[in-house]
Structure formats: structure tokens, C-alpha cells
Amino acid sequence: MEVVVPxxxxxxxxxxxxxxWSPDTPCSCDCFVSVPPASAIPAVIFAKNSDRPxxxxxxxxxxxxxxxxxxxxxxxxxxxxxxxxKTHAVILSRPSWLWxxxxxxxxxxxxxxxxxxxxxxxxxxxxALLGMDLxxxxxxxxxxxxxxxxxxTGLLExxxxxxxxxxxxxxxxxxxxxxxxxxxxxxxxxxxxRLWAAxxxxxxxxxxxxxxxxxxxxxxxxxxLRTHAQAQGWWGGQGNFDFAQVFSLTQQPVRMEAAKAxxxxxxxxxxxxxxxxxxxxxxxxxxxxxxxxxMDSGGFRTTASMVSVLPRDxxxxxxxxxxxxxxxxxxxxxxxxxxxxxxxxxxxxSPTFGAQDPVRTIPRFQTRVDRRHxxxxxxxxxxxxxxxxxxxxxxxxxxxxxxxxxxxxxxxGPLAGxxxxxxxxxxxxxxxxxxxxxxxxx
Length: 442
Prior knowledge:
Blueprint: E1 29-35, E2 43-53, E3 58-63, E4 66-67, E5 73-75, E6 80-82, E7 86-87, E8 90-95, E9 103-106, E10 111-117, H1 131-141, H2 145-159, E11 175-181, E12 186-192, E13 195-201, E14 204-208, E15 220-221, H3 225-231, H4 243-247, H5 254-272, H6 279-286, E16 296-297, E17 300-311, E18 319-322, E19 334-336, H7 374-386, H8 391-410, H9 412-415, H10 429-441
Antiparallel strand pairs: 1-2, 1-14, 2-17, 3-8, 4-7, 5-6, 8-9, 9-10, 10-11, 11-12, 12-13, 13-15, 16-17, 17-18, 18-19
């Protein structure tokens, strides 16, 4: 596998496939979860920053529940897989050129985020399922975090993972880790090729950041995980089996060394707020630039963010806040709730190019197309003003803060179990706030 990033040097080390990146060009993401009693309310709270190539556009896509013909097939980013008879409604934040998603949720209160990871297991060169495809497939096919884990590991076993994870002629391939959450618990799933280990989180906080983090506390694993490690000479077969220690690269790439600092910083930020974590606290963590969690470095930046509140009480709605724009410190988290009135907001949907899309033509990615949706265009102009220090920029930033607070207030009652608003009012919240944000920039 050849991976070349502009401004960086490619190094292939004997016995371990890895790339060495310059420190100013990290690639990364961060996922967080708070499970009661760490949360301030009886709810699981999920959050993720998606850190991607800085000019990549991320859209927010609503896909309603659907039924499918027996024996039908589904086209993912690169390959087809067998379709299931019924798929759940999902809200997805995704790079607009691919089928899968960086993060998202479904109508049953399942949330998933994924991270790139490199291990001793070689990254496959062939096209298979992207980690982002696995994420969307799991959301469409599961009604709990644990079921989503089984969906991902089953698809991984049948189809494998692989293919370039960015829109460029030079391939960028990796394996994946996932943070999965529902109303009652969370799971961390870490993979190395078709192999995997999982850890169940039933209370407290947890975060992941571009590195293996499951040690000896393994709740479930691939049946051949330990025998494979032993056959490769990575584990002696006796004593405790530490997944991260056994499968992590002996000499870490620069990008993974940088991820260690973000992982520690994220863990500390969560621990500081144990027992008082709210959606607002998670938003503040995602906006933390000092730690690198809110990224703007070299060729990568935080291109979209998401925070979800999943109440333990099934009578209360799950609320998902999404930005649809880069840099959460200069973006608005807007609330989405599944239900009557939920629909696609056209302002956050990128244009499509059909069979002429560079991802569909072979060889792939030989040309570039303009994937910017209307909110992205307006936000980029506003971002320039906000960073200029001018009065107009400060006014725009104030409008953003006020709009976000209105969104938080709009869902306070439903999350507290108070009288529900009229049917359709919650389902149309996201569209309404996207429209208002667009008007503020105009």
C-alpha cells in the first residue's frame, strides 16, 4: 500500500506497514461517551469530532426507514453487500463523496462514531467496506449498541475492510475503531483486519482517539484473536492478554503519538466533569483547541461535530445535535429528533454527480467536483468574518451562540419528561434551525 500526503514523507518500515507523517499534518478523530452516574441526568451522552482533510465537505443526511426486496443488493462506497429486509431511519454526518458516515444515530437511539487506526496487522490494499460503511450499515440494521457490534463484526468477517478513506488518487487506507452507544450502555470495538476486541461500558466515561485502547478488560473478541497473535509471535500464549499491547505497532507513527496526547487530554476533561456531564459540557470538550481535540493543523481540521443525549427513559426522545460545518468553536450545534416531521434539510445536502462522480469512475478520483452545500458555503464566508476580528464577525458569533442556546432550550422540556409539544414540532426542529442559521449568515 502506498500512502502519500502532500508535504509529508512516506516511510515503509520492514515488517510493519506504517506511514510517517510530519507533526503538522495529523489525521485524527475523537469520540466520547458518558454513562450514568457520570452524566448530570439519567442519560447516556455521546459526542464526536470528525477530523478530516480540511477542504472536505461533510453533509447531514436523513434516511427514513425502508423495506427491501428479498435477495437485493446494496451498493456501498466501493463494493456491494447483501441488503436486509428492513432498515431503520438514520441521521448521518458524512463526507459527501462516500456512502457511509463518520458518525450518526438511528431511530432506536443507537449512536456510532469511528476512528482510523494502524496496527501490526497489515492494511489491505483491495477495496472492501470502509469503516464508515460499516458504521452506517450497523445503524441501519440494529436496535441496540450490542446488536450494532454484532452487525459490524459479522460484515467484517464476510467482506473485510479496505479502500481509500479520502477523495484523492493516492490511497489512504486504515483499520477502524468504533464507539457505540445506546440508552443504557456503550461499547468500544477495536479492529485489526478481520480481527477485533470489544469492551462494554456500563457506567462512567470513555473516549477513543486513533489508537488501540482496550487492554485486558475484554468483554468480547474474535474467536481467533489470541491464536493469531500467538502464531505471529506477538504473544507468548501465557498470562494476561493485553489487546492494545499485543496488536499496537512497536514503533508508532507520528500521527499516533500525537493521538496519545489527545486521548489523555480527553480522558482528563471527562474525569473533571464526572457526575455533571451534559450536552453543553460535551460541546465544550469538542471545542477544546488547546488539547488538539478541536483540530486545525496542516492539512486536517475538524470538519463536523455531533453530540447526542440518549435518555434512559424510553418515553423521552433522544436528541442529536449536529453542526454540518467545520470547526465546532465557530459552528452551531442544531438539534435533531426522530419522529413526525423529520425530513432532509436541503441546505446541508451536497450536490450529486451520478455515474460521472469521480468516486464512481475508474480509475477513481482523477478529477475534483464542487461538493459544497449551501450552509457550508455561507458558513465559510461567515467563518472568515468571525476570524477577522471585525465587528460584523463578532456579531455573527453572538448570533451563533444565541441560536445554539435556543436549540438547547427547545429540547430541555422533552428531555426533562415535561409535556410534549404538538406532533411534528420536534421532528422539524433541525430543518428550522438550519434555516435560521442560513438566514443569519445571509
